[in-house]
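Quick check before the chapter quiz. The format below is the same one you will see on the exam, so make sure you can read both the input and the output lines.
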Amino acid sequence: MVRPSTLLALGALAAAAVACAPADNTASPAGTASPATSTACGKDQLKLVNAGKLTIGTDKPAFEPWFKDDDPANGQGFESAVAFAVAGELGFDRDEVQWTTVKFDTAYAPGPKQFDFDINQVSITPKRAEAVDFSKGYYTVKQAVVAIDGGKFAGAKSLAELKDAKIGVQVGTTSLAAVKEVIKPSADPNVYNDQIDAVTALKNKQVDAIVVDLPTAFYVTAAQVEKSKIVGQFSATGGAPEEFGLVMQKGSPLKSCVDKAVDALKSKGELAKIEQQWLGSAAGAPELG
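Here is the expected output.
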């Protein structure tokens, strides 16, 4: 994010109970450590920021479809469900997980962290990886362009047709990098400290379009900006797919264990189930070539 949102497209999913989220008293269906938890990764062996608790960071407000009702601790929304699933793989019950507020760009800034891992639509990039450790990717993301329906650029079929658009985007995100390096508009984009500021600028027609990750784009068009539409989606990279990763302090002793947890969730199909539950409708937007 990409980032630092009752979807029409995702509404049925957001309204549903979290099939893959933890039960009320546990972070995993069985409430026990999974096979991914080896002796070295046993809960009692992990070096934690707060003894006996797994501390997870994310930003506030926490937008849909990543979270629901601005409450990361409720287990609802894609990233809340993923976080609790990882916690379960590490052997933590739900009441052993605590959340802390961390600004988006602070999560991957150099320096000590007050969380064990952060989940906040943070894309894995070589530059960010110089300052923090990332888990293996838990979600492959595309960028999306959102405009007011009927506006000058709402009917664009290619990235080239967006060259003269005034684009709004959040600072420090891969969305900003995608605007500069892929769309390459003739005018510098309007850069905002927070995603909601970019959304407000679109609503007030201060920009022609905004660029956000695709699931967020569905939320923007369904719940935040009336008469807006997704112009299309595109890849922010020319090589390997862009992925979100869990953020940890550089040199974190948890990294190998968190990687095992993510791998276990992938191999069991749990990540795919969570994605389908919360982001399953975030497909079908036209590709911008």
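If your answer matched, good. The chain has two domains: 11-139+243-279, 142-234.
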